[in-house]
Structure formats: C-alpha cells, structure tokens
Fold:
Amino acid sequence: MDKIQMTTPLVEMDGDEMTRILWKMIKDDLILPYVDLKTEYYDLGLVNRNDTNDQVTIDSANAAKKYGVAVKCATITPNAARMDEYKLKEMWKSPNGTIRAALDGTVFRTPIIVKGIEPCVKNWKQPITLARHAYGDVYKNTEIKVSGKGKAYLVFEDENGETIKELVHEFKGPGVLQGMHNTDKSITSFARSCFNYALDTKQDLWFATKDTISKKYDHTFKDIFQKIFDEEYKSKFEEAGITYFYTLIDDAVARVMKAKGGFIWACKNYDGDVMSDMVSSAFGSLAMMTSVLVSPDGIYEYEAAHGTVQRHYYKHLKGEETSTNSVATIFAWSGALRKRGELDNNNELIKYADALEKATIGTIESGKMTKDLALISSLDNITTLNSEEFILEIKKNLDKELA
Ligand code: NAP
Ligand code: MG
Structure:
C-alpha cells in the first residue's frame, strides 16, 4: 500500500512520562506505516522545557498559529516534587496555560462512546460536549479575609483618574471578600469559538449563566453571545439546521439530565470546570474523552484530557507491565490529522483518520481493552491487554479497515 501523502505539516508537541511512551507506540504502529507523516516537531518534555528555559513551549504555540493544527501529548506541570526530580532551574508554568494564553481559546471536551461502557445517565445516547471558557472569573480573583468590622468597596479608576465606587458590604464582624473580572474581548472570542465549533460539528449550542442574579456580570456574557449570534451566525445556523439556545444555568443542569445528548454545552470558566468532571465521569472515564482547544481565528490544538499517568510510568521504568489506555491520545492524533485533511482537501487523510477511530472503537467493542475499561465494561467476553498489545490489536483492525 502506498503511504498517504500530506501537503502541510501539523505541529507535533511531544510530552512526558507514560503518555510519551504511548506517543511513540502510536506513531510507530498506527501512523507511520500508513501516512507519510509531515510534522514540525517540538519536544515539550520537561527535560527539554528546562533546557530551553521554556522557549520551546512558546515556539510550539507560535508554530500552531502558523500551521493552524497541532497535536499535543500530556505534559508535566511542575510542582515542588518535580523541581527535585528533574533538577529544574525554575518552576516552569503549565504548558497548557501558556498555549491557551497564546491562542486565546476555548476547550471542548467530548466523551468517546463505545458499546459496553454505558453512561450512568441512561437517557444519554449521544455525547455531550462541554465548552469551557478558559479565562478569568474566580481563576484570576483577588481575595481578602476580613478580620472584623468595616466597609468593603468595589472601586474602578479609569485612565483619567475618574472613579466609580460601590459599597459591597458593611461588615459587623469577620468574613470574606472576593473581586473578579472578565473582559469583553475574551468573552467575545469564547462566543465565536463556540459558534464556530457548533457549525463545524453540526450540533446545537446551549449556553447558560446566572444572569437573573448577576445582572451586570453574567448578563454581559448573555448579551455578548446574543449580539454575536444575531449579527454573525444566525443565518449560518439556519442553513446548517442547528439552533442556539440560552437558558439559566440551573435550568440547563435540569435539562441536561433529561436530554439524550448530541449537543454542545458552553459554560463559564467555573461551571465548565465542575460540569466537565461530572459529565466525563458519568460517561465512563477520562481516558475516553477527546479534548480540543479552538481559537477564535480557527486554530485547533488536539490533546488527551488526562495527565501523564505518572503511576503507570514508574511501573514501566521498573520493567513491570502496564495497561494504560491510549484511546484519548489516539483520538488526539486522528482529530488533528482529520482537521489537516479538511483544511488541505486531503480526502485520503480524512478517511484514514476515520478508519483509525473506527478500528479503536471496534477493538474495545470486540472485548479487547485496557484494564481501566475492563473494570467498568458490561461486555462478558473481555480480554485485558497491556499497553502495547492493545495498540497492536487496533493495528490489526486498522489493516482490515484500510484493506
Ligand atoms: P493522570 O495522569 O490523569 O492520572 C491519574 C490516574 O488516572 C492514573 O494514575 C490512573 O489511575 C488514571 N488514568 C489517567 N489516564 C489514564 C489512562 N490513559 N489509562 C489508564 N488510567 C489512566 O493525573 P496525575 O497522575 O494526577 O498527573 C500526572 C501528571 O500529569 C502531573 O505531573 C500533571 O501535572 C500532569 N497533567 C497534565 C495534563 C495535560 O498535559 N493535559 C493534564 C492533567 C495532569 P490508576 O493509577 O488507578 O490506574
Ligand atoms: Mg476540575
């Protein structure tokens, strides 16, 4: 078989620990035999981030802007223990944070549905995609622990020195106080990313805030979404046969539990943090979840939603067998290759990406899976495979798909 040709490279961001091991297996066994892979390679492994003073992360984000499509392996976010373990010069920032700040994006997470792994919510028949705004609110807050009696104010001073001052509360005793913000610019790019993603995947878009209580803050989110929808997306949504639906966050939660799935649920930063963990665990597992960062100007970065699976890596280093689920990382590759194919009108590459996903799902549905899934699967003919055996089983199915 001739290898599938690529016209434009995609940006490859390598990572750490067990996912770095899986990364190589996936490339060697599932991609390189079939695709004449063109990538611009950036090693975001912690050793190289430290060697380059983290310049490699910035370079990789710039490359993503240049080429439009990137695929990223999970990476270590350093903490005190990693400072010692890797003899780091500095506690480098989270690469995901750096890349998100550079691309100004929204993170979309979708469960991968397979037979035998049933959602806990029995009426969920199709995936629910969470779209999380990744800037501001409580994640960039300022807090004070109030020690006793006194008045708390919210003060804004504009560039001419004019001030607006609002009393927050007159404290009669100890308490707590918090200030937070967002910007029209960031909310606008969040809205555009959501509308574009809905059009791209032909799914309805839901958005919810608490605008009845937060009449300025949350209401601004609601208003910006509505304005952008009316001005830029209304007719495109009609053409695509999809809808935009705004409701209160508590109403949204109630409706989600009764829905059958198949839509995108856009959430403010905190709601998205909390609800994505609820939705993903109700669908089965973090290793059965795709994750893509989409920027308002259409840059796509695909990754797995889980971390570097450190505990499995230490077993691997001791020469012990591991049974690590590579599905989310495989889907990061297939997602990036498919997007590259769509942008380049490369049908062969799109078909290959579809086949790779089909082969992966088929492998699990035939009862062959890694330990994490074997523990929760309702199938009765289960074979638990180690990390590499699972990938080689997928390869057998992929050969059949492509034959
Ligand atoms: P983790 O890598 O997500 O793993 C936590 C546990 O979840 C594992 O020990 C394992 O459970 C299970 N698990 C996760 N992915 C799995 C998979 N593919 N197959 C099978 N089991 C899986 O989280 P962590 O151990 O807390 O974090 C490790 C490192 O990852 C940290 O340095 C953190 O900074 C980094 N991290 C990176 C990203 C990213 O780059 N996107 C995201 C999160 C965390 P059992 O041990 O019970 O088998
Ligand atoms: Mg969380």
About this structure: The two ends are 9 Å apart (CA to CA). The chain has three domains: 1-109+297-403, 118-141+181-283, 142-179. Residues 211 and 386 are 49 Å apart (CA to CA).
